[in-house]
UniProtKB/TrEMBL annotation:
<dbReference type="GO" id="GO:0008483">
    <property type="term" value="F:transaminase activity"/>
</dbReference>
<protein>
    <submittedName>
        <fullName>DegT/DnrJ/EryC1/StrS family aminotransferase</fullName>
    </submittedName>
</protein>
<keyword id="KW-0808">Transferase</keyword>
<dbReference type="InterPro" id="IPR000653">
    <property type="entry name" value="DegT/StrS_aminotransferase"/>
</dbReference>
<keyword id="KW-0032">Aminotransferase</keyword>
<dbReference type="GO" id="GO:0030170">
    <property type="term" value="F:pyridoxal phosphate binding"/>
</dbReference>
<dbReference type="InterPro" id="IPR015422">
    <property type="entry name" value="PyrdxlP-dep_Trfase_small"/>
</dbReference>
<dbReference type="InterPro" id="IPR015424">
    <property type="entry name" value="PyrdxlP-dep_Trfase"/>
</dbReference>
<comment type="similarity">
    <text>Belongs to the DegT/DnrJ/EryC1 family.</text>
</comment>
<keyword id="KW-0663">Pyridoxal phosphate</keyword>
<dbReference type="GO" id="GO:0000271">
    <property type="term" value="P:polysaccharide biosynthetic process"/>
</dbReference>
<dbReference type="Pfam" id="PF01041">
    <property type="entry name" value="DegT_DnrJ_EryC1"/>
</dbReference>
<dbReference type="InterPro" id="IPR015421">
    <property type="entry name" value="PyrdxlP-dep_Trfase_major"/>
</dbReference>
């Protein structure tokens, strides 16, 4: 079976972890600081704050922007549950805008329809590795005085008009093993705003700047030096990983684009897509998925149930009607595109799909 995801952990990562273990400094220490500096530079921002998951990064980003009880945050329902749940965790209310059918990213026109006097922030998700429309979102945020918090958990290294995601507002990244780069579990907050950065650092460690002096509420969201050591090696390899994803995606698209029952990914002008997922649209999605699995092709559905239709959100009273989101949830299918997928695997995926006709 060609797996849908596979982290690439090499000898360099093993060595880096061993050396941290031997040092005895195994919680947050110098490796975390080094990783933060390198990741800030890579993303093109002044500050990066490492935490222990992407969910923690989203939660801290929201809190550091002052989001809480009584506020509304407009985001996409077509995402991993953490997008909505991190907003709930602050006490604020997630408000779901619909998506664009071509890119699966939040639709700026739908954002405008959802703005109320309680709206405080927009949280676009750069889904599958393709940047959301940061031009339109930036303009809406400016007109309505809203914070922008980017869920960049799937988009390390992606760019919009030449600027890396995570540098438009407060960025939130995940380093879970299936993402474009990993630290095992881990996350990162990125920002140019010194105040947001300082608050994020405090929230990460129980609201303290100085040990045993606690000024604001916080959690223990610290990253370990063990994780940061893996991250430093992976960051050196991220461009190579992303290029391999882009090459695999381009061969898949060349092999599938003429099939009339499959819509291959659309890359919007000015966007660099880093293909966290290679996602097609097809009407008989479930039969195609079963056929592919029977023929050795691991595939995935991201996401079969939009956030607003999850049991928790129904319980909370969400009754939204988001037609493009709901249609996408029925039609998307992701094919293996990660750097461990070899040329012969890509050929196998294409011929398997083509032979079905
Ligand atoms: C993975 C992911 C998260 C959460 O990251 P974790 O590290 O698993 O907590 C949030 N949002 C999106 C879009 C993701 O893909």
């Amino acid at each position: 079976m060609i797996p849908i995801a596979k982290p690439l952990i090499g000898e360099a990562e093993v060595e880096a972890v061993s050396s941290v273990l031997r040092s005895g400094m195994i919680a947050q220490g110098p490796k975390v600081a080094e990783f933060e500096e390198a990741f800030a530079k890579y993303t093109g921002v002044e500050h990066a704050i490492a935490v222990n998951s992407g969910t923690a990064a989203l939660h801290v980003s929201l809190l550091a922007n002052g989001i809480g009880q009584g506020d509304e945050v407009i985001t996409s329902s077509f995402s991993f549950i953490a997008t909505g749940n991190s907003i709930l965790a602050t006490g604020a209310r997630p408000v779901f805008a619909d998506i664009r059918p071509d890119t699966f990213n939040i639709d700026p026109d739908s954002i405008l329809e959802k703005i109320t006097p309680k709206t405080r922030a927009i949280m676009p998700v750069h889904l599958y590795g393709q940047p959301a429309d940061m031009q339109a979102i930036g303009e809406i945020a400016e007109d309505h005085n809203l914070a922008v918090i980017e869920d960049a958990c799937q988009a390390h290294g992606a760019s919009f008009n030449g600027k890396r995601v995570g540098s438009f507002g407060t960025g939130s990244f995940s380093f879970y093993p299936t993402k474009n780069m990993t630290t095992s579990e881990g996350g990162m907050i990125t920002t140019d705003d010194a105040q947001v950065a300082e608050k994020a650092r405090m929230i990460r460690a129980h609201g303290s700047k100085q040990r045993y002096m606690h000024e604001i509420p916080g959690c223990n969201y610290r990253m370990t030096d063990i994780a940061a050591a893996i991250g430093l090696v992976q960051l050196d390899r991220i461009d190579e990983f992303n290029s391999a994803r882009q090459k695999n995606a381009s061969v898949l698209t060349d092999g599938l684009r003429d099939l009339d029952y499959i819509t291959t990914p659309v890359v919007r002008e000015g966007c660099e897509h880093v293909y966290h997922q290679y996602t097609v649209r097809t009407e008989n999605r479930d039969t195609l998925a079963d056929y592919l699995k029977d023929n050795g092709v691991g595939c995935g559905i991201y996401y079969p149930i939009p956030i607003h239709q999850q049991p928790l959100y129904k319980e909370l009273g969400y009754t939204d009607n988001l037609p493009e989101t709901e249609k996408a949830a029925d039609e998307v299918l992701s094919l293996p595109v990660h750097p461990a997928v070899e040329e012969k695997d890509i050929e196998h995926i294409i011929t398997t799909i083509r032979n079905r006709e």
